[in-house]
Predict the structure.
Amino acid sequence: MGPGQEQLKNIMSEQHPTHLPLSQHHNSAPAASEKIKRNLVRLLFISMIALGIFMGVAFPPMVKLYFNLENALSFNFTLMCIAAGITVGIANYILFHTFVSKELSFLVKGMNRANEQIRAALFSNKMHIDQFEIEVKSSDILGEATEAFNTMGKTVQQRLFDEAHFRKLIAELSTNVDLEHTAEIILKYFIEATCMASGLLYGKIDDEMTLLARKGFDADSNLPHILENWHGPIGDTIKSGEITTVNTETESIDWLTVTTPFGSHRPKRIRIIPLIGDKKTVGLVIAACSNAKVPEHVQFATLKTYSAYMAPYLQNSLLHNKIQEMASFDSLTHILNRRFGLIRLQEEFSSSTRYNTDLSVIILDVDKFKSINDTYGHETGDYILKTIASTLSLNLRHEEVICRYGGEEFLVILPMANLDKAGMVAERLRHIVETHFCHYNNEVIKTSISLGVSSTSALNVHNENDLVNAADKAMYHAKDNGRNRVALYRNNRAELFAKQMSKPSLKPHVS
């Protein structure tokens, strides 16, 4: 059962606490039918007749007492008074049946129709806003009863709508745990369910609130990708775990703007909603308040309910994202491992083929690495690999990718680079490693690398493996020609790169 399905089960059990198995329903039916129920209409009729008889009997003595008439206590006059009382009682009952009972029947029919619609809505998501309402025809107690039933119907309808909404939400969130997809779904449902105009969703990644999804707000340079300083209302919300409403003018929050057909403006009020998972704030929704005609306490209750439902899914996605990142990096060198490096290469090769752009790769190997292990030990060898990986990573551009390809081999992916440009990058990396001196356990260790370069601009390849194999051949050509060299694979053969740097362009880096 998913993290939100238990809450859905609870809320549905609260909605229908009297649900029983079918057998129990059938067993309880006879007991209910055996119980004698009062018929209030019949009781009212009998009471009116009895009141008429009583008034018919009591009226003659009252006439005798006040008017001193000789025939007031006669049998005929008494019988006439009793008949008049009964007639008035019957007339009152007829009037009640004509007006009050008719209105009550209309109310009962409306209630039965609404109850049928409510039962049907329990198993359907098709509901309309006025579906459960009964027309209010009077301003008396019957009108009040009708309005009370309509209010109850709206409450039930809202509950059913929320349950249907939650079922749809859980179904979407349960399909995958991709962080980007989950963040978009959470923000989408937050805005739809709470009448918010626009919003941002931040998630806690490496102790930093990082922007995961945006809707409505302008994606300009002022919108922070990371909420670096947790002070003011944002910090208060994270500490307290309570929803905070902020006046943007008094708090000087000027980085939220919304562009509409009428121009750009800054929302006057925003709400900061924490998403709490395991008693910790795992995310924040920052939303612009709309002018919805919904009471404040209802909005807050809805926001709290949705935040409680969505927090476990966001937390799971954040955890999955962290595990994915850990799985994609080599534990020793902290760069991409071979599997994920080759996935990136496949993606770049597909992009290069689709858009007819250049793609180059570099295969490099640490020279005489076995000798380093034999001389200084494997611990020193591990340190050398970590140092070289860190040095290469720091000297590559953001779009260039490096991964650990084998034991002491590395693969560098260079999008948008032809063979000559890739050769210059390889030579620069070779030169940096050559001039990089490592100090380890009072030992000064000098290392070098041999590199092979291939490119789609100088090779007819069918897939990314052809590119890697060509670079690998060039790398072995560099090793066979003295090591600490760069070789290019051009015209189906390997050749040494001619533009070797003779003078260091950087000062030696001492580790």
Remarks:
- The longest strand covers residues 269-277.
- The CA atoms of residues 275 and 429 lie 45 Å apart.
- Residues 11-33, 503-511 have pLDDT under 50 and may be disordered.
- DSSP finds 15 helices and 16 strands in the chain.
